[in-house]
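Question thread 4412

I'm putting together a teaching handout and wanted feedback from people who do this every day. The idea is simple: show students a protein as raw sequence, then show them the structure tokens that encode its fold, then repeat with a second protein so they can compare. Below is the first pair exactly as I plan to print it.
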Amino acid sequence: MLPILGRDGTAIGALDEFTEATNSVIRERRLGTVLELDERATASRSLKELWSNALAVLERNPGDAPFALLYSVSDKGIDNRTSPTHPLSSLMTKRCIFEGAIGVTSGLLDAFPSFDLAEGSEGLAPAFRQAWGSAKPIKLTASDGTLPQAFANGVALDRGFGKPCKSAVICAFPPLSGARIMGFLVLGLSTHRPYDDDYQSFIRLLTDRLYKSITLICLPEARQRSQAAAEKRELHHASLSKELLRRSQVVEKLEQDFERFAETSPIAFAVYQPDGLPIYMNQAYYNLNGIIKGASAFGPWADTQNIHTEDVHMVRKQWEQIAAGQEINPFEYRVIKPGNYCNINDAEAVGHRWLLAHPVPQLNDQGAWDEIVCWFTDITHQKYSELLQTRKLKDELESKEMTKNFIDM
């Protein structure tokens, strides 16, 4: 926030900037879902518990997951939940076991119970068979007829912004070895967000996290603990790196905005170190003090070459008091400006510009002065107006005295 000062040095307003934050909010929401899934999945000790935890996490993010259905895959007559390492068999013997769902009506659940993977040309079986041989999620849409009609009115009204579902993706969890798929996730897509790279990346992170948990559950206990810790550290490091990059970009933008506002501001100001060395001076400062930017090196409290000779001692004394840790009131001084500044026909008004300096110390956490911000206001017109009023009053008194003397004669 940048203050706007009036001619008398008081604040008359403030300039603030509002930034569109939709994408940032969505990224944080999705990152929170991935991190929560990582925590819940790491704590899972069986595939049954993993499916339940995954659905519980997705249920808390209706904006990106309007609905979800989970199916595990097992051989006919063999439940994959109790025997995850059963020997491989062909696609013809596979059966999809319904594990749970969120965000759907009971009618939709009745339409898609457990089913044989190799049988049927309707429902989810064709899409599951396609996902079986694909290395990436399969997108289903109502427009091309790949999404079953039952999904149009099967989403709960309190999810998906209360609108009919138009698209979904099917993700197959890759095999531990050979050609065995461990399960399928049917995930509804938001009707308010495009299925772009960010959305695809979010889904990929979810499925990767589930697959890693499936692997850990099926590994020996010793390897499970070590790999879970490594994966958690990796995910935590990735999230921290992403957050650090985001915050660095925000800080960089704020610095650019501040510099742009400062350089275009009509109010002159400068920032100094406690020892008086300048840190930053905006363009208005150079203009008021009659200094060419970059023309000479600045010493403590800037260059005094343009300060009126009668005011140099006073100005330096003021800054020395500030450097000693003393708070001072705003002070006035003159700078040399060639020419007749205000077109006032008076020797005292030629070549001078009056400035009002208002130093404001900035304290750090320890209470010491970290830096000093000084605001400069051009009060030349005010000083010259006072001069004219004084002259006018003097002339009136002289005229009155002359009139009195004339009457006495």
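The second pair follows. I'd like the answer to focus on this one:
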Amino acid sequence: MEQAPYDDPRPGRPSKLNENERKQFFEQLHQSPTELGYDQQAWSPKLLLHHVKEEYGVEYSEGHARKLLGKAGLSCRTARPRNHEADPEQEAEFQQMVEKKRPKLTEKTVVVVDQFTKRVGTVQRRSWYPIGSNPTIETSNSWDKVTVLGTVTDDGDSFYCWTEENLTLKQGIWLLGALQERFGEELVVFLDRAGYFYSRDLWEHVSGERTTETVGDSSVACVHGDEEGEKHLDVWYFPPKLPELNAVEGCWDRLNEWFKHRLIPDLSSLKEQIQRGLHTVDEPNIWNYLCP
């Protein structure tokens, strides 16, 4: 038998990353693609394939790209939106200020507050169904809603309450009293700048004074209680357009997962599901958000 002819060995693309390249590549995946010169703000299998080919000369299938993302410690999820107008310097200044004042703040119980609105209806998300099937789910939609006010303390305690009404200043002031009843009078409460929290009426309730030492309403960062107001209570405000500083935002992400594909036909069902869903929420460490 004659030996079949073979081409002489010739160099080509490597079939896979070597150990050092793999380690370096996984470190790159934990950076934002924008830091590596891409326009995309998050990794996808297609972007990974492009990057590993351009950077290392290795070609993988899209299925293998998904495996690499998982092995690198990434998971597929929806990122929380960040306002494009948010000021990174303002975020850093706020965190530095909180870090500096943390010893004084922790003389009291520190509480962060946020709100979450859920309407009657079914949350539809991508899910898994048998191949070849035509999946459907029952849905219901309505203008009826429930707004939840959630709070988490620096000790990991939590408090949730809700209303069917639109939030107003009256409810904002009521919440401060409810928090003192729940966690004690000595409180530092972090609020956002929604109208029912960021108001001269609330400042007067806390400090006993209608006016503030600041130039204008938009520059009020904190209000301290005194003898004429709520002397045991201090209110701090998050900078505008920076929800990622608020630890309670993560609680709403988990609650939204609870509602995925659940049929919510009416208001009573919504309230029941909110109560059940809140039991699945793990309260985060607020200091990881306030001054990481």
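Top answer:
Good format. For the second protein you could add a caption like this: The longest strand covers residues 109-121. The radius of gyration is 26 Å.
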